[in-house]
Amino acid sequence: MDEPIREPSGGPWPRRPYWVVGLALLGLVMVMLAIAFVADRQLRPRLSVDPAPTPSLAAAATSPAAAGTSNPANGSSSPLSLEQEIEEAYLRYWDVYSEALLNLDTSRIPEVAADDELRRIEEEVGGLRNRNEAARINVTHDYEILDITSTGGTVYDEALNQSYTVDPVTKTSPEGTNRSEILRDLYFFEKRDHMWKIVKSYRVED
Asked: What is the spatial distance between Cα 53 and Cα 152, in angstroms, rounded to a whole number?
């Protein structure tokens, strides 16, 4: 027959009141909660900010101050990132290109385009001039900047095109302005003489 379990030599086991054990556990829980609270305050970000969407041409063109971050203390601007440089060059390209088609004047196109793109725009303006027409550009952009390096970059744009031809003198259109279409184009940039220029563009067909 098994013998009953005996207490260890030296006397009976000490027995602590339950309330003492409960207080000890409560104190331990409070200490752990305090440590977790401090760690959370130290490690979590102060703000949660979603990335801003890529701006449209209209929004960016009316905000020239966004090209650099001004320092009000000394009036200087922080350097642009490569993506910001290409975006600024792309929007400027559209300003100069629109002006060229409206005024039938390609004198400023070399500021924003070179090689195949320069020749394409010169031919386009020449064709308008031969037809005794000009063009008013009305485009809403939805673009993305791709494949950025220190010397090149690509922009893909799905643009809502509502451009129309106008009289080269009065700049008005007798045909109205109801035509619209979605154009999908790729624009290839290269850095020439420290300036970003579009050297070619392709229409992406469905």
From this structure: 23
Is residue 11 included in any domain, yes or no?
A: no
Q: Pick from 160, 156, 161: which is nearest to 87 by CA? A: 156
Task: Determine the Cα–Cα distance for residues 95 and 88; give it in Å rounded to an integer.
Answer: 11
> Tens digits of per-residue pLDDT, 7-52?
444 445 455 566 565 666 776 766 565 554 444 433 333 222 222 2
- Quick check: is 93 in a domain? yes
Domains contained in the chain, number: 1
- Boundaries of domain holding 140: 57-63+80-203
pLDDT tens figures, 79-99: 889 999 999 999 999 999 999
CATH code of 149's domain: 3.10.450.50
List of residues 6+ apart from 115 with CB closer than 8 A: 199, 200
Would you state the structure tokens that stand for residue 120, as one six-digit string? 């394409």
SS3 143: strand
In degrees, to the nearest 5, what angle opens at C-alpha 145 toward C-alphas 142 and 149?
Answer: 170
Q: Name which of 15-19, 155-159, 164-168, 196-200 the model is least confident about.
A: 15-19
Angular region, 107: left φ>0, alpha ψ -120 to 50, beta rest: alpha
